[in-house]
Amino acid sequence: MIMSNTFRQKLIAGEPTIGTHYLLADPDIPEIIGDTGFFDYGEYAAEYSSFDMALLYHMARAGQCAALPLMIKLDQEGQGFWAQAALGAGFKSVLFTDIRTPEDIETCRRFIRADTPDTRGLMGLKLRRPALSSYHAEDYLGDLSAIVFLIMIEKNIAVENLDELLASAREKDVDMTQWGPADFGISRGDPGLMHTPEIRPFEELVIRKSIEFGVQPRIEIAEVEQAKRYVQLGVRHFCIGWDRFLYRAALTRLGEGMRKLVDTL
After folding, report:
1. N or C terminus of the chain with fewer C-beta within 10 Å?
2. Nearest 5°: phi and psi at 68?
3. Measured between alpha carbons, how far is residue 33 from residues 68, 255, 260 in Å?
4. How many Å separate Cα 222 from the centre of its chain?
5. Phi-psi region of 114 (alpha: psi -120 to 50; beta: other; left: phi over 0)
6. Shortest CA distance to 154 belongs to which of 170, 177, 129, 126?
7. 193 falls in which pLDDT band (50, 70, 90)?
8. DSSP of 111-137, one letter per residue?
9. Rounded to whole angstroms, how far apart are CA atoms 252 and 60?
10. pTM of the predicted model, to two decimals?
C-alpha cells in the first residue's frame, strides 16, 4: 500500500517540522525513531552509509510500521538511480547534494517527478514495493507529487549565485534548502571555516535569502539549545542528532562511569 506522506501534509499546513538523521544500515533505527512519536520524518544519510535496494525496502517497511515518513540523502554520483529506487521502496522525500547551478536543480527535479506532459519528469510507472497490494496510476501520480524535494546549498559557487539559484528553486518547486557548512568551507579552500565565527554571515545569508524566495530553510543541529538562534532568524524546520554520535556519546558516558567505579575496586 502507498503510505500517506504526513511530512508533506505538515508543510501544506504551514507547520514546523522536526527530523533526525540516521546512518546505521539497520531497519530497527527508523522503527525506533518513529516509535518515540516526536519526529515528523527520519533522514537516512545514505551519502555516508552503505546500502542496497533490499535494505531500502526494509527501512521503508519499518518506517511505515512506525508511521514515520523517510527521507534519503544521496551522494551526487548516481543520485538519479538511487532516488528512484528509494521512492520505489516507499521513501517520501529526497535531499539532493552538491547543487551548484540552476541546471542541477532541474536535473534533480526530473529524477523524482512524473513523466507527464505537464510535469516533464523522468519517473514512469514503477511497479515496486507500493504495488504489492495495488497501484492505481492516479494514486501513483498523487504520491509522486507529494514527494518532498530538498537541496543542499553547500558550494561556494552556489552562494556566489544565490539569487539565481533560489529563483530556480522556487520555480522548480523545491520545498527546502539545507545549508552545508563543511562542504562550503572545502569548496572555498578553507576546510576549517565551519568551526569559526566567520561562517555565520554565509549561513545567515542562505537562511535569509531562502525565506525571501519562499523556499523554507532547514537547519541541522546537535542540541536543542542550538535551535533558539535559528528560530530568531526565521527557521521553522530542523533535523537534530545523528545516531552514530548519539550512540558514541551514550557509550562514552556509560564507559567513563563504569571505568571510574571499577578502577576503585
Report:
1. C
2. -120, 110
3. 8, 24, 32
4. 15
5. beta
6. 177
7. very high
8. HHSB-STTT--SB----SGGGGT---H
9. 31
10. 0.95
Percent of the chain with pLDDT over 90: 90
**Domain count across the chain:** 1
**Strand 17-22 with 41-44, pairing:** parallel
Work out the number of other CB atoms within 10 angstroms of the CB of residue 104.
20
CA dihedral 30, 83, 94, 29 (to 10 degrees): 10
Q: How far apart are CA 25 and CA 245, in angstroms?
A: 15
CATH number (domain holding residue 20): 3.20.20.60
Residue 219 carries which side chain, given as an amino acid letter? I
Output the CA torsion 37→41→46→48 (10° steps). Answer: -70
The residue range of the domain holding 209 is: 6-262
Q: What is the pLDDT of residues 232-258, one digit of tens each?
A: 999 999 999 999 999 999 999 999 999
Residue written as cell 552562494? 159
**Sign (positive/negative) of CA torsion 229, 232, 234, 239?**
positive
Grid look-up 533526525 returns 20
Radius of gyration of the chain (CA): 19
Query: What single DSSP character describes residue 189?
Result: T
Q: How far apart are CA 129 and CA 108, in angstroms?
A: 22
Grid coordinates standing for 47?
Answer: 551519502
CA dihedral 177, 210, 246, 190 (to 10 degrees): 90
Establish if 190 belongs to a structural domain. Answer: yes
pLDDT at 38: 98
pLDDT, mean of residues 19-32: 97
Q: Which residues are bridge partners to 217 per DSSP?
A: 177
Q: At 181, list the grid cell.
A: 557548512
pLDDT the model gives residue 132: 66
The cell numbers describing 4, all together, are 500517506
